[in-house]
Amino acid sequence: MTRKTLLTAVTATLLLLLPAAARAQATQVLRGEKSNEYGLVYTLPMTQLRITVEARCTRTVAGPFASYAKKCIGADNAVTANTTGWQITQVSVAPEGIADTSVKYLMQLKPGMNTFLTVAGDGMLRTVNAELPEQEQEPLVTSRTVMPESDFDPDAYLKYVTADFLSAQSTGRQAQLLADAIMELRTRRQELTMGTADEMPPDGNALKHTLDELAAQEKALMDAFLGHTESFTLTRSYSYLPDKEGRSVLLRVSDFDGLTEADDYAGEPLYISVEVTNRPGLPKDEKTGADKVLPKDAVCYVIPGAARVTLSYRGRNLFDSEMRMAQYGIVFGLNPLLFTDRKNPAYAIFDPATGAVSEIGQVADFGK
Prior knowledge:
Blueprint: E1 3-5, E2 14-15, E3 28-31, E4 39-42, E5 45-61, H1 69-73, E6 83-99, E7 103-108, E8 116-119, E9 125-128, H2 163-167, H3 171-194, H4 204-226, E10 228-240, E11 246-254, E12 258-260, E13 268-278, E14 299-313, E15 316-334, H5 337-340, E16 346-350, E17 357-362
Antiparallel strand pairs: 1-7, 2-10, 3-8, 4-7, 5-6, 5-10, 8-9, 9-16, 11-12, 11-13, 13-14, 14-15, 16-17
Helix pairs in contact: 3-4
């Protein structure tokens, strides 16, 4: 096997919101044929990070009589202003491989050999002499932040007011009339519950319907004083390809727009930091202690390095862990004779995130 190196520019560091179609990783089998001159071309991975961010939006709406809540109904927890705020609640980080197309490798076979490779849709080596079941990769969530419509109606109380309320000359008088109406509703509900009302519903279903209607009226009147608080959760995924150490902004969090792009300076930054913790050397010969020599025409794989990945927001670490990464490691290789032996060939499976050898054995034993 020979290696053919194609030198190109390093891919962009931050890959945000990639289309799901671009991430298709359907596996294909490569076999030596006359059409490809019995040469199987593959690539090795770089380790990309899939970062999933969950954020909660809390929205408040003040009632029209919030300033009278304490005086009229004795409540001191009324919403006094319309606000919208976002807070990151959870993050997760998972490594995944993407093909390093700056270097391509060739496994040269002879006619009649049954040796084969499986590669991902981008040409990244997955196995030698072993077929794996298809594994669907979750697509990135590509939609922008969407604020759902609120089902809260601050004017719902108007459906239940009296003529006296409509003719009242001051807001204070209106507030008192609403408070009186709340007390009347509670008294009516108590009488129905205890069975002491002058007019009782004819059956249990009618009683339940009446009590539900009274509860809806009371809530609408109370909301006119207390206001409304609601929240919802949004989850988005990002891809980040570490190619250097240091800290950068992954995204920003805006109280108005939610999760926004890194260059939207209206929001607070969520930082990602990468610190290389291990750069491996060549494997050693057990007898001599010297560096091993790359076998001729080797089947190449990655001995990954490692880096500490940290996500921080508002001065607090949300994620801090050491992760294996292909781009901080080195490329070595397996002797191709292992896989071309006609009587007892070997198989190998490679980690799709790092390119490391994750399993190796005899084809006869595969799957046992």
